[in-house]
Write a structure and sequence with these properties.
Shape: flat
Structural class: mainly beta
Distance between the termini: 44 Å
Radius of gyration: 20 Å
Order of helices and strands: EEEEEEEEEHEEEEEEE
Number of strands: 16
Strand order of the largest sheet: 9-8-7-10-11
Largest sheet: 5 strands, antiparallel
CATH topology of the largest domain: SH3 type barrels
CATH architecture of the largest domain: Roll
Number of domains: 3
Helix content: under 10%
Oligomer: single chain
Strand content: over 45%
């Protein structure tokens, strides 16, 4: 185990507390006007999936579990879970529905993700920061609105809702941030 300061915890970090492993779902550093800064962390216990909220001073030391982070390619999903393959040695790993969570909607055939393994069991998954998807539905383009700073609602090909600039039309491929599902730019392909 490695000790790290609480303020360095991020989504996907694995923490050991009371001899149990937890995966960090969200971590937020709060700096109130008075008093010490704190880190609020929402975690899921890996053994049984129970969600826990923890609060530490930002300078407090927390035990971070030693996990193996590797790049895997997504293959398919079935009743057992989500199947990934290591591109170097072709070993396959299955991640449970709890590990993949809401990010499953972004998984595409062959997509590279980072899996955190503990004793050869997938305990967390990290998507690429940006992915390219096609716009499935949005309002029609209005001529002359290309320089507007407003955004309009849109639905991506995977069903995720986002907002896009007015000049984007149905069928356009766009780059989306997976963390907050926001529009970045029109795809260059």
């Amino acid at each position: 185990m490695v000790k790290v300061i609480a303020s360095s915890l991020r989504k996907g970090s694995i923490v050991e507390q009371d001899d149990k492993l937890y995966v960090v779902l969200t971590a937020e550093n709060v700096h109130p006007g008075k008093g010490n800064s704190i880190t609020n962390v929402n975690m899921r216990r890996i053994s049984d999936g129970v969600k826990v909220v923890a609060r530490w001073r930002t300078t407090e030391m927390v035990e971070r579990a030693n996990v193996d982070d590797r790049t895997y390619n997504f293959l398919y999903s079935d009743g057992e879970g989500y199947h990934f393959m290591n591109p170097e040695n072709y070993e396959q790993v299955t991640a449970s529905v709890d590990v993949v969570g809401d990010d499953a909607i972004f998984l595409q055939d062959g997509m590279q993700v980072t899996l955190s393994l503990y004793n050869d069991i997938a305990i967390s998954m990290e998507l690429p920061q940006r992915i390219t998807l096609e716009i499935a539905d949005t309002e029609p383009v209005v001529k002359g609105q290309t320089a507007s700073s407003s955004f309009k609602p849109a639905v991506l090909a995977n069903g995720v809702k986002t907002t896009v600039p007015p000049h984007i039309s149905i069928g356009t491929r766009v780059v989306i941030l997976t963390e907050d599902r926001s529009y970045v730019e029109r795809a260059k392909d």
